[in-house]
Design a protein that fits this description.
By secondary structure, this protein is mainly α. It has two domains: 48 residues, no CATH class; 59 residues, no CATH class. Helices cover 49% and strands 11% of the residues. The chain has five helices and two strands; from the N terminus they run βαβαααα. The chain starts with a strand and ends with a helix.
């Protein structure tokens, strides 16, 4: 249901056997051997979909499904600091999906206004 995306360049790397923090060494190796991967994001599903996911939940409640946002630490950081998320982190993984959800909401509002305006005429 919820995904998590994080840039490889700001990830923490831990040795799976010893538990030691190997971030510095890993980033140095990546910069030296394949720097192009540092611009990539690692993504995973944190919570598996169950029973149709949020789309089915919205349908069962009779409300529109506006979209999904990936778990994004930048979204949390911006909201906790009282900052505009999209202005502060325009390239963050949740920025485009957030815009899409807002666009969906605005289109639903416009459609509702148009249908209620037509009914009043």
């Amino acid at each position: 249901m919820a995904g998590f995306s994080h840039p490889l360049s700001t990830s923490k790397y831990v040795d799976p056997v010893s538990g030691a923090d190997v971030t510095e060494e890993t980033l140095a190796t990546l910069k030296d051997k394949c720097p192009e991967v540092l611009g990539l994001f690692a993504s995973t599903d944190v919570f598996p979909r169950f029973g149709g996911g949020p789309e089915a939940m919205a349908a069962a409640m009779g409300v529109p499904f506006l979209g999904s946002l990936p778990m994004d630490g930048n979204l949390t950081a911006a909201t906790e600091a009282g900052l505009s998320f999209v202005d502060t982190f325009p390239d963050s993984p949740a920025t485009k999906p957030l815009f899409a959800a807002v666009d969906c909401l605005l289109s639903k509002i416009k459609a509702a206004e148009a249908s209620s305006g037509a009914a009043e005429l």
